[in-house]
Design brief:
Keywords: Coiled coil, Membrane, Transmembrane, Transmembrane helix. With 284 residues, the protein is an all-alpha fold. It is built from seven helices and no strands. It has a domain of 33 residues. It is elongated and about 175 Å long.
């Protein structure tokens, strides 16, 4: 009976260790789920915060654009003044109208040469995409997707009629309007937008929460260490229980001997007397 109880105790200890491991595993899963829920929200808030910061910087960018526009205007005025000065200088040698005409012709010549060079450079770059490589890549993707059923003629550009272009434009406008309506409905469901201070506070609090979850994940992820600790604890408890059971068994044996020593002593004395008498009888 004692052996059976010790075996059952070993089983109970191992079951409790397994339950503890399952508890740690469930805690690990819950921490991972919480982190997976918090991370998208944190990213969305960071994006919203970036948008707010960009909106705040729009005014500064506008002021910078105004300053740049003023500088450009004064640069144009400077060029005009230089042209006027050139005309006035030539007017000392020839009539004013002829000097102005010569300067305009020189400027027109410079503009024409620059435009011609730029046009040739741009034309040499057309098409901007590597046409053959892009078509070959699309062809390869089509073969991988459809195999021999792929039609290479679908890669050629399709010339649309005016009606088809209008229909495509109307379809694109409808899709854009639908997407805009969906975004508006989603924003209405989410409620009013948070301001910059609220976003900063919310992201800071969520960041602390994520930090705690990370620490929990790191502590819960060390399953091997925890399993070793739990098994060592179970073994220690089992040893203590076995020692206690053995001590109890020895104590019960001693108590049994103490309780039955008188009958045993009488039996031993009787056996000794019988043996002595038998020896006497045999000697006679």
């Amino acid at each position: 009976m004692e052996a059976v109880s010790v075996t059952d105790l070993h089983k109970d200890l191992h079951i409790s260790a397994d339950d503890n491991l399952r508890g740690h595993g469930s805690a690990l899963i819950e921490a991972a789920k919480t982190a997976s829920r918090l991370l998208p929200r944190q990213i969305n808030d960071e994006i919203a915060l970036a948008k707010l910061e960009l909106e705040h910087k729009k005014s500064k960018v506008g002021a910078l654009a105004v300053v740049a526009a003023l500088a450009l205007v004064f640069t144009v005025l400077l060029v005009i003044a230089l042209v006027v000065a050139a005309i006035a200088g030539l007017a000392t040698l020839m009539p004013l109208w002829l000097a102005a005409l010569i300067v305009c012709a020189a400027l027109l010549l410079v503009i024409g040469i620059s435009a011609l060079i730029g046009y040739k450079k741009f034309k040499s770059l057309l098409p901007l995409l590597p046409r053959h490589a892009w078509r070959g890549l699309r062809h390869d993707l089509g073969i991988l997707k459809e195999g021999r059923d792929f039609d290479p003629s679908t890669l050629d550009p399709v010339v649309l009629t005016k009606e088809q272009k209008k229909a495509a434009a109307a379809e694109a406008d409808a899709a854009a309007a639908k997407a805009k309506a969906e975004r508006a409905a989603k924003e209405a469901e989410q409620g009013p937008k948070a301001n910059e201070s609220e976003l900063l506070a919310r992201t800071a609090a969520r960041r602390e929460h994520l930090l705690g979850l990370r620490e929990d994940l790191l502590s819960e992820a060390d399953v091997k260490k925890q399993a070793t600790y739990l098994l060592d604890t179970a073994k220690t408890r089992a040893k203590k229980t076995v020692n206690k059971a053995a001590s109890n068994a020895i104590g019960q044996s001693v108590e049994t001997v103490k309780e039955r020593w008188k009958p045993l002593a009488i039996f031993a004395a009787s056996a000794t007397t019988c043996v002595f008498l038998l020896r006497k009888l045999l000697k006679k």
